[in-house]
Design a protein that fits this description.
The structure holds two protein chains of two kinds. Chain A is mainly α. Chain A has 13 helices and no strands. In chain A, α8 (about 155-160) packs antiparallel against α9. Chain B is of the alpha/beta class.
């Protein structure tokens, strides 16, 4: 009985704010609010940057997870800690740190700008950098955990049967941890979509270039509340659809 | 009977520490808290006004809530507790008045003029408003919906410049931060903001008569109307006006 009550209260923590949002939503004006320039640009930018971030996270994060799980090297604990840091840091701090490293006067950013003319802040590429920074740890931690918990016998068997390390990786290891990779990618994408602090601090805020949906909502709260609420509903809808769709797949895999 | 006594004295020690901490904090009589919601461009000057005001009114403790004018107005409309409202936008203040939340007509207590801010040394060689149309420069303004941004765009329109900006920051402090860090070649801020980091910013004056007016008012939701009135009176008094002038604000 106590469990039921506590569980119900726990559910309310999540349900109440959404109910509040749904009650305040300008339902009749929704279509025109969402086809408005600002909302459309923000949605497009958010989808592009979050998908790009997830792709970068996969390309860089999977090898990183493999190294952290399988390769013994001095300072591995510290490396793992650094990878976890964006999960704990306030995103604005992450964005500021990115500025110090990759900004126009940054450690790497200044020589980069001098040599190639590429300036990351205030560009869509900068948005992708910021969202990758905060979301990649999700993939790395999920996959690393899965690799560590993997029963090594299947891989050993494949090796003894003559498979090359690459073949073992592609045909045995990765398929075995597929549910974790999918879950990790989903979390990464969701985190990238919702990123605000690092984006606004590092990449700035300009419609159609760096103003993702969360930024548009934040600025919209000041000027056009109805538009902000409409965009919030879009974010919630997208997130719910993806999370629910993936949950089904994940359960099937298990 | 050793254990119970030890426990008892531990509890006693904790109680004593709590009492001591409580006493240390409220050495004098109970102070009334006056909450002042004010525009972020007033951060430095209001923090400077706090001391002399509290010295003149030892029974009052001023607490500030800084933010963008539209956000503050929305907070008040949603019932956030505040005694005084000081905004950087007359139009937004009129909305608050229309909402029946003000306990009297707002009074303009200061004005601010726009100025171009560049990193110290002016590395990009920005000369004036016309440079805000240049694509090759990295430029920033405040977001259109906040007073600083509205004023900047008004001034640019007056000068017939079509701005080519790379970011519209949500508040003027964020914009200043980017300029001092050298991330932006130039931005349009308030004259009073130049004092925020005098050794890392330079200002280029703008020839304009456009200004931002700052209205202040006490709110009907205030639980301490006397304290609220006292603060507004102080800001409008000679002492308050002198401090505002020191920070670069123009008289109302």
């Amino acid at each position: 009985m106590t469990l039921l009550v506590l569980g119900a209260v726990g559910a309310m923590v999540f349900v109440l704010p959404f109910v509040g949002l749904l009650v305040r939503a300008p339902w009749s004006a929704l279509p025109e609010l969402l086809t408005d320039d600002i909302a459309a640009d923000a949605l497009r930018l958010s989808l592009i940057s979050s998908l790009a971030s997830t792709a970068v996270a996969a390309i860089l994060g999977l090898p990183l997870a493999w190294v952290l799980a399988r390769v013994e090297f001095p300072g591995r604990g510290l490396a793992r800690g650094l990878v976890l840091l964006p999960l704990v840091l306030p995103p604005v701090v992450g964005g500021t740190a990115l500025l110090f490293a990759l900004g126009r006067r940054g450690l790497v950013g200044e020589p980069l700008a001098d040599v190639t003319g590429l300036v990351l802040p205030f560009s869509t590429l900068g948005v992708i950098v910021a969202t990758t920074f905060v979301s990649m740890p999700f993939l790395v931690i999920t996959v690393e955990g899965a690799l560590r918990n993997l029963d090594g016998r299947h891989e050993d068997a494949a090796e003894t049967l003559g498979a090359s390390p690459w073949r073992v990786l592609w045909r045995v290891t990765l398929p075995m941890i597929r549910p974790s990779i999918v879950a990790g990618l989903a979390l990464t994408w969701a985190r990238a979509l919702g990123e605000f602090g690092a984006t606004i601090t590092f990449a700035g805020n300009l419609q159609d270039r760096t103003q993702t949906l969360p930024l548009a909502i934040f600025v919209g709260l000041e000027s056009d509340r109805d538009a902000a609420i409409a965009m919030s509903l879009v974010m919630i809808a997208i997130a719910l659809i993806v999370i629910m769709a993936l949950r089904r797949r994940w359960w099937q895999e298990l | 009977m050793k254990r119970p006594r030890a426990r008892g004295s531990a509890v006693g020690l904790i109680l004593m520490l709590l009492l001591a901490a409580g006493c240390a904090d409220s050495a004098g009589p109970e102070r009334t808290t006056v909450v002042v919601s004010s525009a972020s461009s007033l951060t430095d000057v209001f923090e400077a006004i706090e001391q002399p005001f509290e010295a003149a009114h030892p029974n009052l403790d001023v607490v500030f809530n800084f933010g963008g004018s539209p956000t503050l107005a929305a907070q008040v409309a949603e019932g956030a507790p505040a005694d005084v409202l000081a905004l950087a936008n007359d139009a937004v203040m009129q909305l608050v008045v229309a909402g029946g939340l003000t306990a009297g007509p707002p009074a303009v207590f200061a004005r601010n003029i726009p100025v171009i801010a560049v990193p110290v040394g002016n590395p990009a060689g920005v000369a004036g408003l016309a440079d805000f149309g240049r694509e090759d420069l990295v430029l920033g303004l405040c977001a259109e919906d906040i007073p600083c941004g509205a004023l900047a765009r008004k001034v640019l329109a007056e000068a017939n410049v079509s701005p080519s900006i790379d970011t519209a920051e949500p508040n003027v402090r964020a914009l200043l931060g980017r300029i001092t860090a050298g991330e932006l070649d130039a931005g349009i801020v308030y004259a009073t903001d130049l004092d925020a980091a005098p050794d890392r910013l330079e200002g280029i004056p703008i020839a304009t008569t456009s200004t931002t007016s700052y209205p202040i008012v006490t709110l009907t939701t205030s639980e301490h109307p006397d304290g609220a009135e006292a603060f507004v009176d102080f800001v409008l008094s000679d002492a308050g006006q002198r401090i505002l002038a020191e920070f670069g604000f123009l008289s109302p």
